[in-house]
Design a protein that fits this description.
Structural class: alpha/beta
Number of domains: 3
Low-confidence stretches: none
Oligomer: single chain
Helix content: 25-40%
Largest sheet: 8 strands, mixed
CATH architecture of the largest domain: 3-Layer(bba) Sandwich
Shape: globular
């Protein structure tokens, strides 16, 4: 029987990011997927700023950005009129990626897969999980190979990144509660004439919403449209360009002509959530834990961030003896995020798809009238963009989030995301990108003598950085809530959130924190 520390089931973006995180910490991992090949359709195409940040630690973000389309504008079409709406122009001052990146999921998977290959981990295709039995300290998984006999694999942990129909979730006995939306949708990658290149386009109509996103590859545009309520076309029915053009004509009044489709499909949407993210040694991440409408482009992003949150916690548990509550914190931190995404996407989706007279009137009459005023409110726009960009996700109620004595009143609190800011020759995020924990020490050098700092450098686990307060560091200190010349410290978790924060002087709380969570 083969033995592995973590078995990752599913090789979509979530599974690949999970394996990448585990590999970065030296964990022995296998990745299996029943599909014979990765996806070649575009599918999920929006990568949010926070996802680009967390993937930077794997060294793949620069390539993603170089291939993607940085969308910064949305053109709204309502009753024959157009209005250009800026996107991500406010509230994103503390990230290196102040934009929504449009990139085909096929490219995202290719880049993540090549990263794993370079790390010596291959995705095992045509391998299906068919059985799962728990043991005293792990699980035994039965894998069926398409071109060979079944095998059994002993694993300390099994992570289900295998989508909405997750086998791991089913075998672990975790319920998946929710429902399907009644509408049938059309998705296509194709060319379109009659719209301006560059921005995304949204046609608001009484019947719903017609969207064109700037994709670039394998086609210029991604189309998303809703079929009429009385259209009973089953999701698996074949789709023709003539049908899609007829649908476009009803939304755009014939202003948009479609051609050269690369890929087209009908599909249905669901909103469901797992009742638990863990059952013994089995964990769920991504679509296996939560599925929802694509409103806001949150799906793939939430899954990748699930993986980054869980990956380092599994690695720590395997390599040291931290408090068992470390693994419990995965669900405590990520389940509320999943529920929030479901609520927000469901409300947005209902607003733009409802066929009730009131919803149709609001979409075509009220929205065009009040939208300019709403968009003119800089604070409202900034908050909305930060929420969609997932930069406001925080874990303040997590047991891993501790405010120590003398913690500054300003700046991020324990559990918040570490903001980015320029430093002398680098940035906060580049400084803290390598795997592991990072301790930021602010204040004069005398506040942190070497005999104090040396014990904090836990071999292979904590990297210590001094922020002495040079002129070029003032922006970073201000964003961290640290006053120049005043001692303070921030302990940054491997996923870029603050674990512990305190003033200078007494390190008793920090020492206790490190013992509990690093073992």
């Amino acid at each position: 029987m083969d033995s592995v520390e973590v078995l990752v089931v599913g090789a979509g973006p979530t599974g690949l990011a999970m394996a990448g995180q585990l590999a970065a910490f030296g964990v022995r991992v296998r990745v299996v997927d029943r599909a014979l090949d990765r996806v070649h359709e575009s599918r999920a195409l929006g990568i949010q700023p926070r996802t680009l940040e967390v993937l930077a630690g794997l060294g793949v973000t620069d390539e993603l950005v170089s291939l993607g389309n940085r969308a910064v504008r949305l053109c709204l079409h309502v009753r024959g009129r157009q209005r250009m709406v800026p996107l991500f122009d406010l509230g994103l001052h503390d990230t290196a990626y102040p934009y929504l990146l449009f990139l085909s999921q096929a490219e995202t998977e290719r880049i993540l897969g090549e990263h794993l290959t370079a790390a010596g981990i291959g995705v095992e295709r045509g391998v299906e999980l068919v059985g799962l039995d728990r043991t005293g300290d792990g699980a035994v998984a039965t894998l069926r190979h398409r071109d060979g006999p079944a095998e059994q694999v002993s694993a300390r942990y099994v992570v289900g990144c295998d989508g909405a129909h997750s086998t791991v979730r089913h075998l672990a006995g975790i319920r998946f509660e929710g429902a399907a939306y009644p509408q049938t949708f059309v998705l296509a990658d194709l060319e379109a004439d009659g719209v301006t290149a560059g921005p995304a386009h949204a046609f608001l109509a009484e019947r719903g919403l017609f969207l064109l996103f700037p994709l670039g590859h394998p086609a210029t545009w991604r189309l998303l449209a809703i079929r009429p309520p009385d259209d009973r076309t089953p999701p698996d029915a074949p789709l023709t360009l003539t049908e899609v053009q007829a649908l476009a004509d009803t939304y755009t009044g014939g202003a948009v002509r479609l051609r050269d489709p690369v890929w087209m499909t009908n599909f249905r949407l669901h909103h469901r959530a797992a009742t638990r993210y863990r059952s013994g040694p089995c964990y769920l991440a991504g679509d296996a834990a939560h599925i929802h409408s694509p409103a806001g482009g949150q799906g793939m992003n939430t899954g990748i961030q699930d993986a980054v949150n869980l990956g380092w916690k599994l690695a720590h548990t395997l390599q040291s003896s931290p408090d068992p509550a470390l693994l419990d914190s995965y669900e405590a931190e990520r389940a509320p995020v999943g529920r929030l995404v479901l609520r927000l996407t469901d409300r947005t989706f209902t607003a733009v798809t409802s066929t009730s007279p009131l919803a149709r009137f609001a979409r075509t009459r009220i929205a065009p009238a009040v939208l300019p005023t709403v968009l003119a409110a800089r604070g409202v726009r900034a908050t909305a963009f930060r929420t969609v960009a997932e930069l406001n996700i925080r874990y303040r109620r997590s047991p891993l989030s501790v405010q120590g004595p003398g913690a500054p009143r300003r700046g991020p609190r324990a559990g918040d995301r570490l903001p980015d800011a320029p430093l002398a020759g680098t940035t906060l995020h580049r400084l803290t990108a390598p795997p592991g924990w990072h301790l930021l020490l602010g204040g004069p050098p005398a506040a942190w003598p070497e005999e104090v700092v040396t014990p904090l450098r836990r071999a292979g686990q904590v990297t210590v950085h001094r922020l002495p307060g040079a002129a070029e560091d003032r922006v970073a200190l201000r964003r961290l809530g640290l006053a120049p010349g005043v001692a303070g410290l921030l302990l940054v978790r491997p996923d870029g959130h603050l674990g512990y924060r305190s003033g200078g002087g007494d390190l008793t709380g920090l020492a206790a924190y490190l013992r509990r969570w690093l073992g």
